[in-house]
Amino acid sequence: MTDDRIRLHVTRYRPDKDREPGWQEYDVPLREDWTVLDGLNYLKDDVDTTLAFRWSCRMGICGSCGMNVDGEPRLTCATFLSDYTPGPVRIEPLANFPVVRDLVVDLTDFMEKLPTVKPWIIREDDVTEIDGEYLQTPEELDAYKQFSMCINCMLCYAACPVYGLDPDFVGPAAIALAERYDLDSRDHGARERLDVLIEHEGVYGCTFVGECTRVCPKHVDPAGAIQRYKLKAAQESVKAFLLPVMPKRLRP
Amino acid sequence: MSEDLTYRRPISTWWWVRKRSYFLFVMRELSSIFVAWLVLFLLLFIEAVFEGEDAYRAFLDRASSGPLLLLNVVAFAFLLLHTITWFGVTPQAMDLRVGGRKVPTVAVLGAQYAALAVVSGFVFWLVAR
């Protein structure tokens, strides 16, 4: 086999030594079936054990290995080195998040925002799983299935300039997950989620750049979810204005 | 507590020129200024029409002056960008369903352009008759 190699420009940040991130260059074997993550694991195993990055499943399910590859947020386990020949390939930590070390970013902000949109099934009755399962038709499943495919990989946050400029913005994945539960026939929590998402930092923060949808590896379409939520929120505002005393139980 | 050693990367003022999609987005946002200008221009035009023939002629003279003509050509280009880009994202923003099935993107786009053609045709007929 010929010794084909490709150069990687990798962000290094060692908080105990560096004031700010810098670059380190590495050459890795260029193999047809190697992803960017394979290249990084080769470095970690054989070249430089100090390089830090997150990964787990290698098959686009766990959502851990998101990085900016040549400026684009990508799952590195699904991004092939051979698509970047002759190189070099720039590998950076996901944009818009604080860098902990090298290619590892701090996701605390998202972890704090996610529960505020209550991404779980909320019931108004006291039915529990002990009373039996909630039944759902294929059509009812179809209504929210697309939004349930989110793997929290954070590529959408890295692609979103609104989140970059205004870190208070709830952001694409959290809103798409709110929509996932709103559209679920078993759920009664739409009203509670609306109270959070109707705030300025909720859906109205979004200016519909559409990049979140473009980079989503699971085709969740967060941008679509947010625009639909805006429409819903606007209708609710009109209703609340016209019918301010409408009893809560009659509201949709 | 240990000190926070995470690094927050600053965002350049020129973030929007580094990617084609970001640039197009900012141009789309900017286009709304030109849309507002053309609305104002139309209102001034209508006002001139109501004020009588002299005002109308004076308005046309001003409108055909070099700088204003240039401004309006640029504004029209932005208006086209505004229309095309917003029409383009409408199918994504609206979850239209007929008989439980999602209306295809092509149908939503087609309906918008058809409506634009009808309105434009009516305006053309109004002016040219």
Describe the structure.
Chain A has 252 residues and is of the alpha+beta class. Chain A has 2 domains: 5-105, Beta-grasp domain (Ubiquitin-like (UB roll)), CATH 3.10.20.30; 108-250, Orthogonal Bundle (Fumarate Reductase Iron-sulfur Protein, Chain B, domain 2). In chain A, 32% of the residues lie in helices and 13% in strands. Chain A has helices spanning 36-47, 108-113, 138-145, 155-159, 161-165, 172-182, 190-197, 211-215, 222-242; strands at 5-12, 22-29, 66-69, 72-75, 89-92, 99-101, 104-105. In chain A, the strands form 2 sheets. A 5-stranded mixed sheet of chain A has the order 2-1-5-3-4. In chain A, strands 6-7 form a two-stranded antiparallel ribbon. The longest helix of chain A is centred in the C-terminal third of the chain and has 21 residues, at 222-242. The radius of gyration of chain B is 22 Å and the shape is flat. In chain B, 74% of the residues lie in helices and 3% in strands. Chain B is mainly alpha-helical. Chain B has a two-stranded antiparallel ribbon with strand order 1-2. Chain B has helices at 20-51, 53-63, 66-93, 105-128, and strands at 97-98, 101-102. Chain B folds into 2 domains: 14-78, 3 helical TM bundles of succinate and fumarate reductases (Up-down Bundle), CATH 1.20.1300.10; 94-129, no CATH class. The chains are: A alpha+beta (252), B mainly alpha (129). Chains A and B meet through helix 5, helix 8 and helix 9 of A and helix 1 and helix 3 of B.
